[in-house]
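re: the backbone from monday

yeah here it is again, tokenized this time
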């Protein structure tokens, strides 16, 4: 997670809301310039649901940019480790309890197990809070439709992480393709640097493939 290319830590709340919220593997969530009942020059209040693994990486990022007011994790070790870094944040083991008790927050950051994402997202949306969620957002089409409807009704900003796709270099490359500046692809290379993941690189050489 590298926020340095996305947002400066010294930005005010107003600048922060306009330019972006969270950089996770290059994915960015943006918030509108006005959030109800909060000073535009203050910091966002966030709740973090899941504090270990990917959640720990997300927590490290937003902790430098927002007020983390509540932490939640079913794993007591992960929760306690996060609480040591943010001692003023209230602790929960069940996100249902967090949502029942917490009201003074602007956004929820969700990094729970994949099959629970929709269940963790919906309460925040129904409370009209902004949401950042790890992929996949849902397990099936039905859950996706329910979440989409809730987001539309809430009128808030949402973001599902899609790894590197929003990075400036990828966005620029895509814009070149759409503008017709890159007509044909001669070679495509990809790899993975994640710990424990496959590090092999493969080369794709499409013949006569137009972009």
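seq for it, each position gets an aa:
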């Amino acid at each position: 997670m590298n926020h340095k290319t996305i947002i400066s830590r010294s930005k005010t709340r107003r600048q922060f809301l306009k330019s972006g919220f969270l950089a996770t593997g290059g994915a960015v969530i943006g918030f509108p310039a006005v959030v109800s009942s909060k000073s535009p020059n203050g910091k966002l209040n966030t709740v973090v649901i899941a504090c270990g693994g990917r959640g720990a990486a997300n927590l490290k990022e937003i902790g430098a940019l927002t007020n983390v007011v509540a932490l939640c994790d079913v794993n007591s070790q992960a929760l306690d480790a996060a609480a040591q870094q943010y001692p003023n944040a209230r602790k929960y083991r069940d996100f249902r309890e967090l949502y029942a008790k917490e009201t003074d927050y602007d956004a929820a950051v969700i990094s729970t197990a994949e099959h629970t994402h929709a269940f963790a997202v919906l309460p925040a949306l129904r409370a009209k809070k902004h949401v950042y969620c790890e992929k996949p957002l849902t397990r099936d089409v039905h859950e996706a439709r329910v979440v989409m409807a809730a987001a539309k009704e809430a009128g808030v900003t949402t973001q599902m992480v899609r790894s590197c796709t929003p990075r400036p270099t990828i966005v620029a490359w895509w814009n070149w393709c759409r503008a017709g500046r890159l007509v044909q692809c001669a070679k495509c290379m990809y790899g993975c640097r994640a710990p424990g993941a496959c590090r092999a690189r493969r080369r794709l050489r499409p013949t006569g493939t137009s972009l």
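Residues 1-37, 198-211 have pLDDT under 50 and may be disordered. Strands lie at 22-24, 27-29, 45-49, 67-72, 90-92, 107-110, 130-133, 158-160, 188-190, 202-204.
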